[in-house]
Predict the structure of Mitochondrial substrate/solute carrier.
Amino acid sequence: MWCIAIPPDVLKSRLQSAPAGTYTGTLDVLRKTLHHDGPAALFKGLGPAMLRAFPANAACFLGVEASLNVMNKLW
């Protein structure tokens, strides 16, 4: 999921943090980003997101399984 979500998030962040008048829209951000920084710029932050995703998903899975186990014992 993060491999798909990071590029639009990078574009959104660049658009939001740029001074007024720097970009005319999302496609302008994409064009200028690809021209100046290359395609790899769209995936900045993917590494930390992936490192965060594994323990977060594991904790969520553990919480769901533990909750189901407790509920099955109570009912």
In short: The chain has one domain: 2-74. Residues 2-74 form one domain. The CA atoms of residues 45 and 51 lie 10 Å apart.
